Amino acid sequence: MSKTIFITGASTGLGKATAKLFQGKGWNVIATMRTPEKETELSQLENVTILPLDVTNPDQINETVAKAIELYNIDVVFNNAGYGQSAALEGVSDEQIVKIFDTNVLGTVRVTKAFIPHFREKRSGLFITTTSLAGVVGFPLVSVYNGTKFALEGWSEGLSYELSMFNIGVKTVAPGAIATKFNDNIDNVIHPAYQNLEKKITDVFSGMASAASTAEQIAAVVYQAATDGKDKVHYVAGADVTATVARRDEIGSEEFRKELSKQILG
């Protein structure tokens, strides 16, 4: 019997690449997105069901999850919906802070909570959440985004203990730069007091972009996490993340922070 994966944020980038990869591996795929009526590629594939889902809408989450469970026995939930933000904290409005936490963190928590009874009753299932290099290492001008991704890493680790009692797995996949349209959707806020820093950060991130992974490469790590059967929570995806984490582990987090500060701030 074919397995089934439920994916949030499947309209573009990593979400879409993951949907296509799992479909190609013979899985049933439930691909969710805010505007399913605009989807033209995934809708042409066999064994792919497209459902509407805005992760900031609790009622729609409950409706869509109930519909998915009616259609299939869900094996994996891939929490991928989210967006980025580039801004000095001083320049970010309260509304912008609430919005990104609502999508990146609370949206993931809501979707996960909605599926737990289904997994608990059958005593199996796996949650995988997209985090980021920014959930492993702090960077200037993305402190709020850092906060959302660090939150997901810690939340996932804590959740893994309580759900392990029911044979439910919890994993994270932390990619670095991905060559997708993700950057087109970044909430970019400019504050005049930080313009020099913004230029430096732009140069650093431009250099990282040259080593960006493809969405397909990161999707392969998601597939690995879904199928390797390992009792492991944290996965990194991409050469840039692997090298960065290795360096931090080699010299320690505080020395790494000082080293990164010199590289970025001079």
Describe the structure.
The chain has one domain (4-265): Rossmann fold, CATH 3.40.50.720. It is globular and about 55 Å long. α1 (13-24) links the parallel β1 (4-7) and β2 (28-33). α1 (13-24) packs across α6, α3 packs parallel to α4 (143-164) and α7 packs across α8 (253-265). The strands form two sheets. It has a seven-stranded parallel beta sheet with strand order 3-2-1-4-6-7-9, with helices on both faces. A two-stranded parallel ribbon has the order 5-8. The protein is built from eight helices and nine strands. The mean pLDDT is 93. The longest helix has 29 residues, at 94-122. Helices cover 49% and strands 15% of the residues. It has 266 residues and is α/β, with parallel strands linked by helices.
Which fold name is given in CATH as the topology? Rossmann fold
Intertermini distance: 57 Å
Q: Can you tell me the number of structural domains? A: 1
Structural class: alpha/beta
What is the CATH homology-level superfamily? Answer: NAD(P)-binding Rossmann-like Domain
Approximate shape = globular
| String of helices and strands | EHEEHEEHEHEEHHEHH
What percent strand? Answer: 15-25%
What integer value in Å does the Rg equal? 18 Å
Give the C-level CATH assignment: Alpha Beta
Which stretches of 5+ consecutive residues score pLDDT under 50? none
Largest sheet: 7 strands, parallel
Number of strands: 9
Helix content: 40-55%
The CATH architecture comes to 3-Layer(aba) Sandwich
- Number of helical runs? 8
User: Taking strands numbered 1, 2, ... along the chain, how are they ordered across the largest sheet?
Assistant: 3-2-1-4-6-7-9
